[in-house]
Amino acid sequence: MKSLEELRAIREKMQGQVGLRAEDDNNTRVVVGMATCGIASGARPVLNYLANEVQTRGLKDVIVTQTGCIGLCQYEPIVEVYAPGKEKITYVKVNPEKAAEILEQHLVRGQLVDKYMLQSTNL
Amino acid sequence: MLPEISLNVLDITQNSISAEADFIEIIISINSVEHTLKATIKDNGRGMDEETVKTVIDPFYTTRTTRKVGLGVPFFKQAAECTGGFLELESEVGKGTMISATFHTDNIDCMPLGDINSTVYSLITFNPQIDFYYEYSVDEHLFDLDTRQMRELLGGVSLDAPEVASFIREYLIENEADVNSKAGYSI
What we know:
The complex is a heterodimer.
Chain A: H1 6-14, E1 28-33, H2 36-40, H3 43-57, E2 62-67, E3 79-82, E4 89-91, H4 96-108
Parallel strand pairs in A: 1-2
Antiparallel strand pairs in A: 1-3, 3-4
Helix pairs in contact in A: 3-4
Chain B: H1 5-18, E1 23-31, E2 36-43, H2 50-56, H3 72-81, E3 86-92, E4 96-104, H4 116-126, E5 131-138, E6 141-146, H5 147-154, H6 162-182
Parallel strand pairs in B: 1-5
Antiparallel strand pairs in B: 1-2, 2-4, 3-4, 5-6
Helix pairs in contact in B: 1-3, 1-4, 4-6
């Protein structure tokens, strides 16, 4: 059974590592819409998947955050990728499986995943 | 409608965050004898005046600017009422807001609680500047998690540090399972 005392050990282990990640402009921001519309269509597992995977793989220059309603509720869950110096990319109707592809192809290798992008859906 | 009560909790708590709360309590209390589940979210955000309290249960009231409907509170209310339960909402300007929904879990229209651990985990790790108190109980068996207490033990280490985040996730899962098993409760 986990006890809060384990946090002391984490503290000792992490001492000196605090502030390792610089909050600078070179980070890619991955933003998941988490308003009622996003949550209702399954944004929570997408957000948690992306955050965990970015941590597990140690992608130091990627930050996963959340936002409110993006204004395209019918296309939720929506994931936006803001890479420094590049145009914003909007992925629509994302689920954890699609998020895995987006992470692997876009965030790791830098290739856009056209088939899930807003631009390529039939509006 | 949202498919899980835990998603309502996540959604409603986003309102507390928008209201600039820095301390939010989430309390899930299950009564296995009376077959009820009460989900309470209490914050110290900016609060609402009486007029606003009346309007938030109206789907055509919202603080969002992207469109003219807001379904968070109406969904929570509807989810509770369709089980024969009810919604309570108390708010005071400058003090905060308490919203609570009681569900009858033996009603066929009752949504499952769902993955409440994911909800609490997301809220804590994506809002490391906010303090949360989470309590989960089945009858007289209870566990809680208080980020203020965690911060003391962690010194300067942030609640969203990877090691801390995975600790929180496992802590929630293990303790919920423990409470359920002690109470002989299965979902």
